[in-house]
Amino acid sequence: MTGPVHPTRDDPVVGALSEGVGGPVGEHAGRHPWWTPVRVLLVLTAVCFALGMVQKTSCYQDAWQDGEQRYAHMCYSDIPYLYTGRGLAELSWPYTGDEQVRARYEVMEYPAGITYWAWGTAWATHWLSGSPDLEPRYALPADALAGEADVQREATLYVVVNAAGLAALTLLAVWFLAGVHRRRPWDAAILAVSPALALTGLVNWDLLAVALVAGAAWAWARDRPVLTGVLIGLGAATKLYPLLLLGAVLVICLRERRLPVFARVLGAAVAAWLLANLPAMLTGWEQWLHFWRFNSERGADLGSLWLVLDQAAGTTTSPSTINLVSWLFLAAWCAGVLVLGLRAPVTPRFAQLAFLVVLGFLLVNKVYSPQYVLWLLPLAALARPRWRDQLVWLSGEVLYFAAVWWYLGGYLAPAGGGEAGFYWIAILLRVAAQLYLAGIVVRDVMHPAHDPVWEERQLTRTRSKPVAV
């Protein structure tokens, strides 16, 4: 069999579910001339993303003005609030140092890639709105803009414009993932139909980085180190975590004694990151630094183990202490991944190492916003393409998604006062689910026979050899 590996025959969960529609695909099943696996995956992705847009309908209908509904219906999104809260409704350049703009609006607290996207989609929104006259808005207090009817209409259109762009990027990400292992395109379905994608895809702009990470995995699988580095660099300019993928490349290159390849990846990543950041650096150095200062100075925030620790102990851990402990933990975690990669029986796969490194970063991060599950999703899909393990992990993420909105809405607060212990439980269960999947990936690395991708490679090699008589 030289065609794609079919999930009904490869994955026990999918095989069991297929019994309701005739069972696993047969040995002699024909192929549809047009409905290739990749095209089916793209349709599934579009449907899943559309369901995510439907899930935000109640907030969209009132332009995200109902403070309780956004939490009760779990349809919150940063996108419309940042449109009015960061000067995008007035098309202010995010990195301007103009005193009037800075007096009216806070600086965007995101890396350059997301900030460019946010401003670009704001420009598109204004163009689609007929280029409204901005002069009257300058006379209003900045915090009053969100109450203006025309601005509210623009804010909802801004969400639609971003949804269209993020949907296209998600389709691109699935296409990339489907091409990482040529005979296993269906592994990308773990991203394509994920409930995490539907629920969190429009919370913020994280899908920009997801598409670049998926592209980096595709480029590495195609043995294109310079392109891999470029995509990692652009990803790091969009959301810092893709920088950690360099760790996975380093482990593989050390293992296979290909350090010149790592040098090419690193050089391309640094060059791409610098070029992507240059417009921001040149037009507003202080504003560009805001992202770094903001993350250095912030304390324990939503979803983090630091928040659980502070609330449970009734203390406040200083940002400097969190920074120090987090970096020490991440260094130790990465050293463990390095030892794991060097001691494994065979060279671990890029996605396995990348998943473990990014997870280590998230475990001790100061904040775990609900959309951060997207950081792990494409890497997890490639690292452990088994639905049972994915569903165990995703159940923890979906539970946390619900809990964080209920917590913010005050629905988890005890009647007698005090901290919301159920929110702590949701955080701990999410971390436990993440560690479960990490444990499975580590087992696959140390015992490759458990790895579906390695197993398929072995079967492919066996089939390609002459049968011994």
TrEMBL record:
Pfam families hit by this protein: GT87
Molecular functions per Gene Ontology: hexosyltransferase activity
CC annotations in GO: plasma membrane
Membrane topology: Multi-pass membrane protein
Compartments reported by the entry: Cell membrane
Keyword Transmembrane applies: yes
Membrane-spanning segments: 155-178, 190-220, 226-254, 261-282, 324-343, 350-368, 391-408, 420-442
Primary location: membrane
InterPro entries given in the database record: GT87 (IPR018584), UCP010361 (IPR016570)
Similarity section: Belongs to the glycosyltransferase 87 family.
Name under which the protein is recorded: DUF2029 domain-containing protein
Origin species: Nocardioides euryhalodurans
Lineage start: Bacteria, Bacillati, Actinomycetota, Actinomycetes, Propionibacteriales
